[in-house]
C-alpha cells in the first residue's frame, strides 16, 4: 500500500504542536517546530512491513491548507493518515477527508482527541477510520487488511462506520506495546 502521513498546518498566526500535552496538542511559539515523532514511528513500522510511506509535514514546510492539499495530491496514495489535536480537530478532519477524496483513497486519523471521541469523528466527517491508542501496529494491520482486500473487522484498535450503515463499529483495543525495541 502507498501511505501518506500528514502533519497538518496550524491555523493562521498560530503554531500547534499536536504531540504535546499527551497528544491533545498545544499552541507553542510560532518559531518552534516539533517533529511529528508519532508519524515517524508509524512510517518506520509501515515501511518495515513492506508498505511505501511518505510524510508531509506541513508545519516544518510552513504550508497553508491549500498548499498542503496540493502537495498531498501530487502522487497517488491508497491511504492517507492525518494526525490531529484538540485545538485543530475540525480543520484536521476536514483535511483528512479532502485529501482522501481527491486521491480516491481511504483515510484515517489518530491522536488523543479522536481516540476519546471516535463516534463524534466518524458521525460528522468523511474520515474512514479512527486509530485508537497504540497506532503503530494498528496502522500496519489496517494497511495489510486493505492490501489483501480483507474485511477490517479483525483489525484491533480501529473504529469505523459499519459498511451496512448500522452505526459505528469499535473493534477491540490493541494490546499495549511492551517491547519498545
Please describe the structure with a list of short key phrases separated by commas or semicolons.
about 180 residues, alpha/beta, two-stranded antiparallel sheet, seven-stranded mixed sheet, about 35% helix
Structural class: alpha/beta
Average pLDDT, to the nearest integer?
87
Strand order of the largest sheet: 4-1-5-6-7-8-9
**Estimated share of beta-strand residues:** 15-25%
Kindly report how far apart the N and C termini lie: 25 Å
How many E strands?
9
- The H/E string reads EEEHEHEHEHHEHEE
How would you describe this protein?
The chain has 181 residues and is of the alpha/beta class. Helices cover 34% and strands 20% of the residues. The chain has helices at 37-48, 65-72, 89-103, 112-116, 118-124, 135-148; strands at residues 2-7, 16-17, 26-27, 52-57, 79-83, 106-110, 129-131, 158-161, 168-170. The longest helix has 15 residues, at 89-103. The protein is globular.
How is the secondary structure organized here?
Elements: E1 2-7, E2 16-17, E3 26-27, H1 37-48, E4 52-57, H2 65-72, E5 79-83, H3 89-103, E6 106-110, H4 112-116, H5 118-124, E7 129-131, H6 135-148, E8 158-161, E9 168-170
Parallel strand pairs: 1-4, 1-5, 5-6, 6-7
Antiparallel strand pairs: 2-3, 7-8, 8-9
Helix pairs in contact: 1-6
Short description:
With 181 residues, the chain is an alpha/beta fold. The chain has helices at 37-48, 65-72, 89-103, 112-116, 118-124, 135-148; strands spanning 2-7, 16-17, 26-27, 52-57, 79-83, 106-110, 129-131, 158-161, 168-170. The radius of gyration is 15 Å and the shape is globular.
Amino acid at each position: 500500500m502507498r501511505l501518506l502521513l500528514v502533519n497538518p498546518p496550524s491555523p493562521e498566526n498560530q503554531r500547534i504542536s499536536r504531540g504535546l500535552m499527551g497528544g491533545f496538542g498545544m499552541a507553542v511559539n510560532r518559531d518552534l517546530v516539533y517533529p511529528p515523532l508519532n508519524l515517524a514511528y508509524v512510517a518506520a513500522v509501515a515501511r518495515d512491513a513492506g508498505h511505501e510511506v511518505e510524510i508531509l509535514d506541513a508545519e516544518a514546510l510552513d504550508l497553508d491548507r491549500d498548499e498542503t492539499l496540493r502537495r498531498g495530491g501530487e502522487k497517488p496514495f491508497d491511504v492517507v493518515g492525518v494526525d490531529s489535536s484538540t485545538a485543530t480537530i475540525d480543520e484536521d478532519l476536514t483535511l483528512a477527508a479532502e485529501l482522501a477524496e481527491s486521491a480516491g483513497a481511504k483515510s484515517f486519523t489518530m491522536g488523543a482527541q479522536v481516540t476519546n471521541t471516535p463516534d463524534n469523528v466518524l458521525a460528522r466527517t468523511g474520515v474512514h477510520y479512527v486509530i485508537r491508542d497504540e497506532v503503530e501496529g494498528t496502522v500496519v494491520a489496517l494497511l495489510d487488511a486493505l492490501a489483501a482486500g480483507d474485511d477490517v473487522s479483525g483489525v484491533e484498535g480501529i473504529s469505523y462506520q459499519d459498511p451496512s450503515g448500522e452505526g459505528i463499529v469499535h473493534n477491540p483495543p490493541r494490546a499495549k506495546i511492551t517491547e519498545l525495541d
